[in-house]
Amino acid sequence: MRITALILTLCLGAAPSFAEFMIGADLSGLALLEERGARYFDDGKEQDALAIFKAHGYNTIRLRLFLEADGKWGAVNDIKYTVKLAQRVKQHGFKLLLDLHYSDTWADPGHQSKPKAWEELPFALLKKEVFTYTRSVIYTFKKYDCMPDYVQIGNEITPGMLWPDGQLEWKEREDSKQWEQFTDLLKAGIRGVREIDPKGDTKIVIHIDRGVNPAVTDWFFTHLNEHRVPYDIIGLSYYPWMHGKFQGLETNLEQLGRKFKKDVIIAETAYPYRTIRKKKHELDFPETPEGQRDFLKALTEKTKATPNGHGIGIFYWYPEALPVKDHNTWLGGATALFDSEGHSLPAIGTLAETARSFHSSTDSLDMKKEQRMD
Protein backbone atom coordinates (compact mmCIF):
# COMPACT_ATOMS: atom_id res chain seq x y z
CA MET A 1 0.00 0.00 0.00
CA ARG A 2 2.91 2.31 0.75
CA ILE A 3 4.22 1.81 -2.80
CA THR A 4 0.78 2.59 -4.20
CA ALA A 5 0.65 5.82 -2.20
CA LEU A 6 4.09 6.80 -3.45
CA ILE A 7 3.11 6.16 -7.07
CA LEU A 8 -0.05 8.25 -6.65
CA THR A 9 1.99 11.08 -5.16
CA LEU A 10 4.43 11.04 -8.06
CA CYS A 11 1.67 10.89 -10.65
CA LEU A 12 -0.75 13.40 -9.17
CA GLY A 13 1.79 15.83 -7.73
CA ALA A 14 2.44 16.68 -4.12
CA ALA A 15 2.25 19.86 -2.10
CA PRO A 16 5.23 22.19 -2.65
CA SER A 17 8.42 20.77 -1.11
CA PHE A 18 10.89 22.64 1.08
CA ALA A 19 13.08 23.17 -1.97
CA GLU A 20 10.19 24.97 -3.67
CA PHE A 21 9.21 27.11 -0.66
CA MET A 22 10.31 30.68 -1.27
CA ILE A 23 12.64 31.86 1.49
CA GLY A 24 12.67 35.47 0.41
CA ALA A 25 14.06 38.90 1.23
CA ASP A 26 13.31 42.28 -0.30
CA LEU A 27 16.79 43.75 -0.67
CA SER A 28 15.80 46.72 -2.84
CA GLY A 29 17.75 49.16 -0.68
CA LEU A 30 20.97 47.17 -0.55
CA ALA A 31 23.00 49.02 -3.20
CA LEU A 32 21.96 52.43 -1.82
CA LEU A 33 22.95 51.49 1.73
CA GLU A 34 26.26 50.01 0.58
CA GLU A 35 26.99 53.26 -1.26
CA ARG A 36 26.32 55.15 1.99
CA GLY A 37 28.71 52.95 3.97
CA ALA A 38 26.70 49.94 5.18
CA ARG A 39 28.78 46.85 5.94
CA TYR A 40 27.42 43.40 6.78
CA PHE A 41 28.87 40.69 9.02
CA ASP A 42 28.04 37.06 9.73
CA ASP A 43 29.87 35.10 12.43
CA GLY A 44 32.07 38.15 12.89
CA LYS A 45 33.29 38.20 9.28
CA GLU A 46 32.45 40.98 6.82
CA GLN A 47 30.74 39.56 3.73
CA ASP A 48 28.58 40.55 0.78
CA ALA A 49 25.05 40.70 2.17
CA LEU A 50 23.81 38.51 -0.68
CA ALA A 51 26.31 35.82 0.29
CA ILE A 52 25.07 36.00 3.89
CA PHE A 53 21.46 35.49 2.84
CA LYS A 54 22.46 32.63 0.55
CA ALA A 55 24.31 30.93 3.40
CA HIS A 56 21.19 31.16 5.58
CA GLY A 57 18.95 29.37 3.09
CA TYR A 58 17.34 32.22 1.17
CA ASN A 59 16.50 31.33 -2.42
CA THR A 60 14.53 34.29 -3.81
CA ILE A 61 15.15 38.05 -3.71
CA ARG A 62 12.47 40.68 -4.30
CA LEU A 63 13.39 44.00 -5.94
CA ARG A 64 11.08 46.97 -6.54
CA LEU A 65 11.10 49.16 -9.64
CA PHE A 66 9.92 52.73 -10.18
CA LEU A 67 9.75 54.53 -13.53
CA GLU A 68 11.55 57.86 -13.06
CA ALA A 69 12.49 57.27 -9.41
CA ASP A 70 12.01 60.56 -7.55
CA GLY A 71 14.62 59.81 -4.87
CA LYS A 72 12.31 60.64 -1.94
CA TRP A 73 12.53 58.33 1.11
CA GLY A 74 15.02 56.13 -0.67
CA ALA A 75 13.04 55.80 -3.90
CA VAL A 76 16.12 55.37 -6.10
CA ASN A 77 15.06 52.13 -7.78
CA ASP A 78 14.97 53.08 -11.45
CA ILE A 79 15.71 50.62 -14.26
CA LYS A 80 19.50 51.18 -14.20
CA TYR A 81 19.79 50.71 -10.43
CA THR A 82 17.50 47.68 -10.37
CA VAL A 83 19.00 45.83 -13.33
CA LYS A 84 22.47 46.20 -11.83
CA LEU A 85 21.28 44.83 -8.48
CA ALA A 86 19.28 42.07 -10.20
CA GLN A 87 22.43 40.92 -12.00
CA ARG A 88 24.14 40.51 -8.63
CA VAL A 89 21.12 38.60 -7.36
CA LYS A 90 21.26 36.16 -10.26
CA GLN A 91 25.05 35.80 -10.02
CA HIS A 92 24.59 34.62 -6.44
CA GLY A 93 22.17 31.94 -7.62
CA PHE A 94 18.89 33.44 -6.39
CA LYS A 95 15.55 33.54 -8.12
CA LEU A 96 14.16 37.05 -8.68
CA LEU A 97 10.76 38.55 -7.88
CA LEU A 98 10.39 41.91 -9.64
CA ASP A 99 7.93 44.29 -7.95
CA LEU A 100 6.55 46.83 -10.45
CA HIS A 101 5.15 49.92 -8.68
CA TYR A 102 3.96 51.71 -11.87
CA SER A 103 4.87 55.01 -10.24
CA ASP A 104 7.83 57.36 -9.79
CA THR A 105 7.65 56.79 -6.04
CA TRP A 106 6.24 54.48 -3.40
CA ALA A 107 2.94 52.79 -4.27
CA ASP A 108 1.00 51.51 -1.25
CA PRO A 109 -2.59 51.56 0.12
CA GLY A 110 -2.44 55.33 0.64
CA HIS A 111 -0.55 56.26 -2.52
CA GLN A 112 -0.99 54.96 -6.05
CA SER A 113 0.07 57.99 -8.06
CA LYS A 114 0.68 57.81 -11.78
CA PRO A 115 4.18 58.39 -13.13
CA LYS A 116 4.55 62.01 -14.19
CA ALA A 117 4.95 60.97 -17.83
CA TRP A 118 1.53 59.27 -17.78
CA GLU A 119 -0.48 61.86 -15.85
CA GLU A 120 -2.35 63.37 -18.81
CA LEU A 121 -2.98 60.20 -20.81
CA PRO A 122 -6.57 59.21 -21.61
CA PHE A 123 -7.45 55.74 -20.35
CA ALA A 124 -6.96 53.94 -23.67
CA LEU A 125 -3.44 55.32 -23.98
CA LEU A 126 -2.70 54.68 -20.30
CA LYS A 127 -3.61 51.03 -20.76
CA LYS A 128 -1.38 50.83 -23.83
CA GLU A 129 1.47 52.48 -21.93
CA VAL A 130 1.20 49.93 -19.11
CA PHE A 131 1.56 47.14 -21.67
CA THR A 132 4.43 48.81 -23.55
CA TYR A 133 6.33 49.76 -20.39
CA THR A 134 5.98 46.30 -18.85
CA ARG A 135 7.10 44.60 -22.05
CA SER A 136 10.11 46.92 -22.26
CA VAL A 137 11.09 46.26 -18.64
CA ILE A 138 10.92 42.48 -18.97
CA TYR A 139 12.81 42.62 -22.27
CA THR A 140 15.55 44.68 -20.61
CA PHE A 141 15.92 42.31 -17.67
CA LYS A 142 16.06 39.34 -20.05
CA LYS A 143 18.63 41.09 -22.25
CA TYR A 144 20.92 41.66 -19.27
CA ASP A 145 20.66 38.06 -18.02
CA CYS A 146 18.47 38.76 -15.01
CA MET A 147 15.08 37.55 -16.23
CA PRO A 148 12.57 37.64 -13.35
CA ASP A 149 11.15 34.35 -12.14
CA TYR A 150 8.16 36.21 -10.69
CA VAL A 151 6.66 39.58 -11.61
CA GLN A 152 4.39 41.51 -9.27
CA ILE A 153 1.89 43.71 -11.12
CA GLY A 154 1.51 46.67 -8.78
CA ASN A 155 2.35 47.00 -5.09
CA GLU A 156 -0.25 46.64 -2.31
CA ILE A 157 -3.04 47.34 -4.78
CA THR A 158 -6.05 46.75 -2.50
CA PRO A 159 -7.33 50.27 -3.42
CA GLY A 160 -6.36 49.89 -7.08
CA MET A 161 -3.47 51.43 -8.98
CA LEU A 162 -2.66 54.39 -11.23
CA TRP A 163 -5.17 56.68 -9.54
CA PRO A 164 -7.73 57.89 -10.40
CA ASP A 165 -8.22 55.73 -13.50
CA GLY A 166 -7.59 52.42 -11.74
CA GLN A 167 -8.82 53.41 -8.28
CA LEU A 168 -11.05 51.07 -6.25
CA GLU A 169 -13.38 51.73 -3.34
CA TRP A 170 -14.92 49.11 -1.09
CA LYS A 171 -18.58 50.03 -0.83
CA GLU A 172 -21.98 48.38 -1.02
CA ARG A 173 -22.93 49.58 -4.48
CA GLU A 174 -19.81 49.41 -6.53
CA ASP A 175 -19.28 51.11 -9.84
CA SER A 176 -18.59 48.28 -12.29
CA LYS A 177 -16.53 50.72 -14.38
CA GLN A 178 -13.90 50.98 -11.64
CA TRP A 179 -13.33 47.22 -11.69
CA GLU A 180 -13.31 47.08 -15.48
CA GLN A 181 -10.67 49.79 -15.70
CA PHE A 182 -8.57 48.40 -12.86
CA THR A 183 -8.56 44.86 -14.23
CA ASP A 184 -7.88 46.16 -17.75
CA LEU A 185 -4.71 47.77 -16.37
CA LEU A 186 -3.71 44.54 -14.63
CA LYS A 187 -4.28 42.55 -17.81
CA ALA A 188 -2.24 45.06 -19.81
CA GLY A 189 0.70 44.57 -17.45
CA ILE A 190 0.36 40.79 -17.56
CA ARG A 191 0.24 40.86 -21.37
CA GLY A 192 3.47 42.84 -21.33
CA VAL A 193 5.15 40.05 -19.34
CA ARG A 194 3.72 37.33 -21.58
CA GLU A 195 4.90 39.13 -24.72
CA ILE A 196 8.47 38.36 -23.61
CA ASP A 197 7.63 35.12 -21.78
CA PRO A 198 4.95 33.40 -23.90
CA LYS A 199 5.48 30.00 -22.23
CA GLY A 200 4.47 31.38 -18.84
CA ASP A 201 7.67 30.42 -17.02
CA THR A 202 7.60 33.76 -15.18
CA LYS A 203 4.79 33.64 -12.63
CA ILE A 204 2.47 36.60 -12.03
CA VAL A 205 1.92 37.86 -8.46
CA ILE A 206 -0.99 40.06 -7.37
CA HIS A 207 -0.21 41.72 -4.03
CA ILE A 208 -2.58 43.36 -1.54
CA ASP A 209 -1.88 44.72 1.92
CA ARG A 210 -4.75 43.17 3.92
CA GLY A 211 -3.09 40.04 5.24
CA VAL A 212 -5.37 39.86 8.29
CA ASN A 213 -8.65 40.89 6.61
CA PRO A 214 -10.46 37.89 5.06
CA ALA A 215 -13.49 39.98 4.00
CA VAL A 216 -11.49 42.48 1.93
CA THR A 217 -9.27 39.73 0.55
CA ASP A 218 -12.32 37.74 -0.57
CA TRP A 219 -13.90 40.86 -2.09
CA PHE A 220 -10.74 41.68 -4.03
CA PHE A 221 -9.88 38.27 -5.45
CA THR A 222 -13.50 37.35 -6.18
CA HIS A 223 -13.64 40.40 -8.44
CA LEU A 224 -10.38 39.37 -10.11
CA ASN A 225 -11.86 35.96 -10.84
CA GLU A 226 -15.05 37.51 -12.20
CA HIS A 227 -12.96 39.64 -14.57
CA ARG A 228 -10.75 36.67 -15.51
CA VAL A 229 -7.43 38.18 -14.57
CA PRO A 230 -4.78 35.53 -15.44
CA TYR A 231 -2.48 35.55 -12.42
CA ASP A 232 -0.64 32.76 -10.59
CA ILE A 233 0.14 33.78 -7.01
CA ILE A 234 -1.61 35.80 -4.30
CA GLY A 235 0.67 38.06 -2.25
CA LEU A 236 -0.22 39.48 1.18
CA SER A 237 1.46 41.99 3.46
CA TYR A 238 1.61 41.26 7.18
CA TYR A 239 3.20 43.70 9.61
CA PRO A 240 1.83 42.74 13.06
CA TRP A 241 2.22 46.17 14.69
CA MET A 242 0.14 47.67 11.84
CA HIS A 243 -2.20 44.80 10.94
CA GLY A 244 -2.81 42.88 14.17
CA LYS A 245 -2.44 39.38 15.55
CA PHE A 246 -2.05 36.06 13.77
CA GLN A 247 -5.72 35.04 14.05
CA GLY A 248 -6.86 37.14 11.08
CA LEU A 249 -3.94 35.96 8.97
CA GLU A 250 -4.65 32.31 9.77
CA THR A 251 -8.32 32.73 8.80
CA ASN A 252 -7.27 34.47 5.60
CA LEU A 253 -4.78 31.76 4.63
CA GLU A 254 -7.40 29.10 5.36
CA GLN A 255 -9.90 30.87 3.11
CA LEU A 256 -7.43 31.44 0.30
CA GLY A 257 -6.13 27.89 0.37
CA ARG A 258 -9.60 26.40 0.05
CA LYS A 259 -11.61 28.87 -2.04
CA PHE A 260 -9.29 30.41 -4.62
CA LYS A 261 -7.00 27.45 -5.34
CA LYS A 262 -4.05 29.79 -5.83
CA ASP A 263 -0.62 29.64 -4.25
CA VAL A 264 -0.07 32.30 -1.58
CA ILE A 265 3.02 34.14 -0.38
CA ILE A 266 3.58 36.62 2.41
CA ALA A 267 5.03 39.21 0.04
CA GLU A 268 6.06 41.59 2.84
CA THR A 269 6.63 41.11 6.54
CA ALA A 270 9.00 42.29 9.27
CA TYR A 271 9.34 42.32 13.06
CA PRO A 272 11.29 44.63 15.38
CA TYR A 273 14.29 43.33 17.31
CA ARG A 274 14.24 46.51 19.39
CA THR A 275 11.43 48.79 20.51
CA ILE A 276 9.53 50.87 17.99
CA ARG A 277 7.36 53.74 19.19
CA LYS A 278 4.37 53.87 16.89
CA LYS A 279 2.34 50.66 17.17
CA LYS A 280 -1.30 50.39 16.14
CA HIS A 281 -1.53 46.91 17.68
CA GLU A 282 0.16 45.20 20.59
CA LEU A 283 2.62 42.46 19.68
CA ASP A 284 2.53 38.77 20.59
CA PHE A 285 6.30 38.53 20.91
CA PRO A 286 8.81 40.77 22.68
CA GLU A 287 10.69 43.39 20.67
CA THR A 288 14.00 41.61 21.04
CA PRO A 289 16.23 39.50 18.78
CA GLU A 290 14.64 36.41 20.31
CA GLY A 291 11.13 37.78 19.80
CA GLN A 292 11.94 38.52 16.16
CA ARG A 293 13.15 34.94 15.74
CA ASP A 294 10.06 33.47 17.42
CA PHE A 295 7.72 35.60 15.29
CA LEU A 296 9.32 34.33 12.07
CA LYS A 297 9.15 30.74 13.29
CA ALA A 298 5.43 31.07 14.01
CA LEU A 299 4.76 32.88 10.72
CA THR A 300 6.56 30.20 8.71
CA GLU A 301 4.61 27.42 10.42
CA LYS A 302 1.29 29.16 9.77
CA THR A 303 2.14 29.88 6.13
CA LYS A 304 3.27 26.30 5.53
CA ALA A 305 0.00 25.08 7.07
CA THR A 306 -2.11 26.82 4.39
CA PRO A 307 -4.62 24.23 3.07
CA ASN A 308 -3.73 22.13 0.02
CA GLY A 309 -0.06 23.13 0.16
CA HIS A 310 -0.83 26.61 -1.19
CA GLY A 311 1.42 28.51 1.24
CA ILE A 312 4.61 28.69 -0.82
CA GLY A 313 6.78 31.48 0.52
CA ILE A 314 7.63 34.42 2.78
CA PHE A 315 9.55 37.61 1.94
CA TYR A 316 11.15 39.63 4.72
CA TRP A 317 10.99 43.32 3.87
CA TYR A 318 14.10 45.51 4.16
CA PRO A 319 16.22 43.15 6.29
CA GLU A 320 19.34 45.08 5.21
CA ALA A 321 18.07 48.32 6.82
CA LEU A 322 21.08 49.79 8.61
CA PRO A 323 21.28 53.39 9.86
CA VAL A 324 23.75 55.13 7.55
CA LYS A 325 24.90 58.66 6.83
CA ASP A 326 22.55 60.97 4.88
CA HIS A 327 19.70 58.45 4.80
CA ASN A 328 16.56 58.21 6.94
CA THR A 329 16.36 54.43 7.36
CA TRP A 330 12.84 53.09 7.96
CA LEU A 331 12.16 52.82 11.73
CA GLY A 332 15.84 53.48 12.30
CA GLY A 333 16.62 49.93 11.21
CA ALA A 334 14.66 48.39 14.11
CA THR A 335 13.21 45.62 11.94
CA ALA A 336 16.45 44.67 10.15
CA LEU A 337 17.96 41.20 10.40
CA PHE A 338 21.25 42.87 11.36
CA ASP A 339 22.03 44.98 14.40
CA SER A 340 22.98 48.64 14.00
CA GLU A 341 26.64 47.65 13.47
CA GLY A 342 25.72 45.26 10.65
CA HIS A 343 26.09 41.95 12.50
CA SER A 344 23.51 39.28 11.65
CA LEU A 345 20.80 38.56 14.23
CA PRO A 346 19.54 35.11 15.32
CA ALA A 347 16.39 35.44 13.18
CA ILE A 348 18.27 35.59 9.88
CA GLY A 349 18.18 31.81 9.46
CA THR A 350 14.77 31.17 11.00
CA LEU A 351 12.70 31.12 7.80
CA ALA A 352 14.78 28.37 6.19
CA GLU A 353 15.28 26.41 9.41
CA THR A 354 11.56 26.38 10.21
CA ALA A 355 10.50 25.56 6.66
CA ARG A 356 12.92 22.63 6.62
CA SER A 357 11.74 21.42 10.04
CA PHE A 358 8.07 21.76 9.05
CA HIS A 359 8.69 19.78 5.86
CA SER A 360 10.46 17.02 7.79
CA SER A 361 7.67 16.76 10.36
CA THR A 362 5.06 16.65 7.56
CA ASP A 363 6.97 13.82 5.88
CA SER A 364 7.01 11.96 9.21
CA LEU A 365 3.22 12.34 9.56
CA ASP A 366 2.70 11.15 5.98
CA MET A 367 4.87 8.09 6.67
CA LYS A 368 2.83 7.26 9.78
CA LYS A 369 -0.39 7.54 7.76
CA GLU A 370 1.02 5.17 5.14
CA GLN A 371 2.07 2.71 7.84
CA ARG A 372 -1.47 2.72 9.25
CA MET A 373 -2.75 1.96 5.75
CA ASP A 374 -0.54 -1.18 5.51
Automatic annotation (TrEMBL):
Protein EC: 3.2.1.89
Domain of life of the organism encoding this protein: Bacteria
Signal peptide: 1-19
InterPro entries in UniProt: GH, Glyco_hydro_53
MF GO annotations: arabinogalactan endo-1,4-beta-galactosidase activity; glucosidase activity
Family annotation (Pfam families): Glyco_hydro_53 (PF07745)
Reactions it catalyzes: The enzyme specifically hydrolyzes (1->4)-beta-D-galactosidic linkages in type I arabinogalactans
Key words, A-Z: Glycosidase, Hydrolase, Signal
Any single biological process term in GO: pectin catabolic process
Protein family: Belongs to the glycosyl hydrolase 53 family.
Listed name of the protein: Arabinogalactan endo-beta-1,4-galactanase
Lineage: Bacteria, Pseudomonadati, Kiritimatiellota, Kiritimatiellia, Kiritimatiellales
Gene: ganB_2
